[in-house]
Amino acid sequence: MKKVEAIVKPSKLKAIQKGLIDANIPCMTVVPVRGAGLQQGYSEIYRGTEKSLILLPKVMIICVVSDENLEKCIDVILDNASEGNTGDGKIFIYDVQDAIRIRTRTRGVEAIK
Ligand SMILES: Nc1ncnc2c1ncn2[C@@H]1O[C@H](COP(=O)(O)OP(=O)(O)OP(=O)(O)O)[C@@H](O)[C@H]1O
Ligand SMILES: [Mg+2]
C-alpha cells in the first residue's frame, strides 16, 4: 500500500476528485493547506505581504491506494492538476505499513478496497 499526498491548486480539486472516482479510487482525504515551493510564491502575486513570507493556499489530497492502483492514481492527479506552470503542485509517495477499517476490523489492502 502507498500513501499519495498531492499538494495542488484549489481550483483543480473538483476535476481531480471526479477523475479519481471515475478511476475507481473514491476514498480520499482533502485538507486545505498553505505552502511555498521553489519560488516562495514570487510568481503568484499577493499584495501587501513581504515576499519571502508568502504562503499560497493549496489543497492537499491524500489517498491510500493498493500498489496496483498507484500509477493510475498518480496519472489522474497529473492529468488534472497540470497547467505546465510553476505552482502546479507536487506529489509525495510513502509506504503504508497497515490500514484498518474500524467498522469491520479488516486489515491491510482489504481495508482500502
Ligand atoms: N519540498 C517540499 N516540502 C513540502 N512541501 C512542498 C515541497 N515542495 C512543494 N511543496 C508544497 O507544494 C506546493 C506546490 O509546490 P510547487 O508546485 O510550487 O513546487 P515547486 O517545486 O516550486 O515547482 P514549480 O517550479 O513547478 O513551481 C507548495 O506550495 C508547498 O505547499
Ligand atoms: Mg513553485
Walk me through this protein's architecture.
The structure is a single chain. With 113 residues, the chain is α+β, with helices and mostly antiparallel strands. The chain has a single domain (2-112), classed as Alpha-Beta Plaits (2-Layer Sandwich). It is built from two helices and six strands; from the N terminus they run βαββαβββ. It has helices at residues 13-22, 70-81, and strands spanning 2-8, 29-35, 56-65, 89-95, 100-101, 106-107. The protein has a four-stranded antiparallel beta sheet with strand order 2-3-1-4, with helices on one face. The protein has a two-stranded antiparallel sheet with strand order 5-6. A hairpin with a 4-residue loop joins strand 5 and strand 6 (106-107). Helix 1 (13-22) runs antiparallel to helix 2. 18% of the residues are buried. The model has no long low-confidence stretch (mean pLDDT 93). Magnesium ion is lined by residues 37-39, 86-87. One of its GO terms (biological process) is regulation of nitrogen utilization. Pfam families: P-II (PF00543). This is Nitrogen regulatory protein P-II. InterPro entries: N-reg_PII (IPR002187), N-reg_PII-like_a/b (IPR011322), N-reg_PII/ATP_PRibTrfase_C (IPR015867).
Describe the secondary structure blueprint for this structure.
Elements: E1 2-8, H1 13-22, E2 29-35, E3 56-65, H2 70-81, E4 89-95, E5 100-101, E6 106-107
Helix pairs in contact: 1-2
The chain binds adenosine-5'-triphosphate (ATP) and magnesium ion.
